[in-house]
Every structure is written in structure tokens, then in C-alpha cells.
Amino acid sequence: MRDSKRSSALARAATIAFAVVLCLAGDSRAADSRPNFLFILVDDQSPFDLRLYNPHSILDTPNIDRLAAEGMTFDGAYHMGAFIGGVCTPSRHMIMCGRTVWHLPNSPNALAEGKCPPNLEQQTIPAVFRRAGYATMRTCKTGNSYEAANKMFEVRRDASKRGGDAETGSAWHARQVLDYLDERASSKDDRPFLIHFGFSHPHDTRMGTPELLAKYGAVNHADSNSLPPANEKQPALPIGYLPAHPFPHGHPGLRDETTVSGVWERRDERTMRNEVGRQFACSENIDIQIGHVLKRLEAMGQLENTYVIYTSDHGIAIGRHGLQGKQNLYQHTWRVPFIVRGPGIRPGSRVEGNIYLLDLLSTLCDIADVPRPETNEGISFKPVLLGQKPATRDLLYGVYNGGTKPGMRCVRQGDWKLIKYDVLEGTVRETQLFNLRENPDEYLSQHHAAEVVAMTGRSPSTSQRNLADDPRYAEKLAEMEALLLSEMRRLDDPWRLWNQPKDGLTSPPEAAPRNPRRNRANAAPAAP
Ligand SMILES: [Ca+2]
Fold this sequence. Notes:
The protein is an alpha/beta fold. Helices cover 31% and strands 15% of the residues. The protein is built from 15 helices and 15 strands.
């Protein structure tokens, strides 16, 4: 009897367990209707290259324009910054893990001081979505990224492809995605997917395809002893162009500013217009490749249930403000293009948004109803995507201090932006205050010089300049300085600038050596 009772209890338990399994399986089948994600990440692109953000641009990107026409464009998307010359690396860490710039596994002292938990790769986009039952696939460049997170993708087809033909350039990355979609179809894999569709371009060296180089009047110039030929098809000098930055940016010997083939230290019109032409040739090729993937998704009937996100790891100067690289905090470089097309997003909508790239993890989780990892510090902008509010953030902070310390910092609130430079052992201490509504291109007094106006054909208005020394804005300046300090404290910035309290901080070990001359001589080229 007792045995019979026990076996009947066991049978009941087995039935319940079976029911639970069925129920879970049912849940899993139901979960297959969750949306897909196609995350497109390009390497080094200023939003102002795109006509979407700059009507004067001659860059043709019909597929990116289509995403915008059918989706939402963000005017206020930013990366939080970098503490090394290879800005890509911290930016891609932030994208993957949703943590702020001083709380990353590779931030100075962060792991040692407990500002970043160990094994964080288990809480990154690929790991979180794989656990949640998503098929995860990645193609992208290798290096200057978050290797531990990259390994979390179920399928990974990475290679750096910066050449000018189908095998060595952007077409290769598209082919990995197209092949993967075909393999999914033939194996009847009906899990929702999250595809990280990364490109190695338009990052230098900007080897365009012959047809696209010809379209933009550019050549793959490699002879440092000559100038590239002038060509009227080339893009005009970029808005904000200067022949030189007005003061040292604080990172002597920085690779991106001195040794990029085709540019080197030159900022003359022929060199810069050719280089922008090369950038556009690479960017249009990316657009063509995106078109192939969108078309395939459409043919497979998958596009309507897919969120397509287009962005870059950071912007880049290429002649703007007399700079060439991505190691600055002007809008052309601190900001990124950001476009999302997907279910529930009003076609052709445009918002300020005020988002960081590090908000992506939180947003994807929110959309897919996947729990956010506790390590996440980002804010979901799903309410912005669904038109429920125009912005998620009011205050934005940025840093570049991959060169001499403490480096550059910026803060933005509303129309106002403050940039500070404390570099080269205190020999460069500069403050810039901009009203971005009146001066969106951050014109300086140097942009008013007759020879610059003659070159660019752009004559800034009297008020379009750095307002930091204008007594009418002294109160605003003090307010922005206070905001910067409070953000530096809130975000655990390990440095302070010359006019800030030291807060008892000990500089991390990679602080610049005391002898600036020695520092200049020994400055290692930054990684790309
Ligand atoms: Ca990059």
C-alpha cells in the first residue's frame, strides 16, 4: 500500500514534471515570435559624413537613408569616451556590456578597485541573448574590441577586411551574414536571431573600390612625397575644417594624427578632400552591402520582425578642427550616427534621444523582454523608440585621455557644451564653451580667418565662436564646470583637472611621466 502510494505520488510528480516541461517548451515556442536584431556597427564614421545629418554631404547611402525613412534617426547619440588611443576598444566594451567608461574590465584600476565585477563577459549582449534562447552571430574586424565578449557569440566569423575588393573589403562581412541567414534557413533554425554585423571600414587605411573611388574623385594615395591629384568630383572640405588645431591636443606622436597613410601630418586642401573622398567610397560600399542583407531579410520574410540598428563605434575628424583622428571631443567625433528601424517605430521619425552607445544592451533586453543583467548601467531608450518620450538623458559626459593626463573632458546639457583640455604636464589648459543651437559646428575664432573662409566658403556669424572668455556667459560657464565635476565624481573618473578639487584621488599608474620632453620622444603610436 505504502509502495503503491509512493509510486502513485511518483507518477503524479512525473506527470507534473512532464507538464512543466511541456509548458516550458510551449513558452519556448511562443518565444520564437520575439523580434530579431540586426546590429550594424561601422568603424570610424562621423554622423556628418551622412546626408541624413549633413545635407551638404555628397555621400550616397540609399540603404541607410531607407532605414531612416522607415525608422527613427537619433540626433543625440554619443559614445562616452576613451582612456587609450584606440578609442574603438572602450567604445566596443561599453556597447557589449552596458557599463560606463570608468567601470569596464580594461578601465584603469577598475577591476582591482572593484569598480568592475569579474567575468563580466558573461553579462554582455551575446552571452545574455544566447542564454535567453537567441541565435547569436557575429562578423566584424578583429582586434581593438572586447575579445572575451566576442567569444560569447554562438557563431563568429571575424576578420579585418580593409581592402578595396570583394574578398578583402566590406563585401566579405556581408557575405558572412548572407551565408549565415542561408544556413539558418536550410537547418530550419527558427530561434530569433541577434546578428552583430560589423564592418572593418571606413577605418583607415581607406582602400575604396576602384568604381567608388572614381565616383568621389579620390585615389588610394600612398606616396608621402607627393600630393594626391585635385579632382572636382571630390567632396568639399568638411564643415569645420581648419588647416591646424589651434593648440596641441595633448597626445604627442598619436598615430591617427601623424602616420595614417595618405594623410600623415598634412591638412592641406588636396590631401583632405582626397581623404574624405576615400572615406565616402568606403562608406558607400558599406551602404551597398547593407542593402544586400536587407534585401535578403525581406525575401525571407524576416525584415518586418527585425530591429535594424545602424551606428558607428565613434565619429572622426578627417580635417574638421584641423584634426584627423577620433581622439577629440568635438561633436563630429564624440557623436555617432544612430538609426533604428523596427516594429512599433514610426517611419521617418527623428529625435534628440540623448543616448549613449552603452544604452544598447538595456534597450535590446527591454525590447525582447529579456532580464537586464545586474551589471548593466545603461538606460533603455525603448520608450523613445516607441514615441513615448523624446529623450532618456539630459546630461552627457565625454572623455578622451589616451594621451597626456588628465586629458580632455566634456559635458553637455541642453544647448550648452563645455570642453576642457588639461594636457602636456599643465602646459595646455584650455576651456571651450559652445552654444550648440547657435553654433552646432563648434566654430572657433580660427574659423573666422579670411584664408579659412576663402578655402571653405563658410563664413561663421559673429557669435559662432568659443564663448568661454565672454563675460556674458560667466554664469553659464560656472554652471557647466559644476556639472562636469559632478559627472566626473558620479562616474568614478580617476582624474581631476587643474581647476577642480583633487578629492583625495591618487592618479592611476599610467599617468603621464613628469618630463614632457621625454614623454614626447617616447610616445608610442596609439593602436587604431
Ligand atoms: Ca573605431
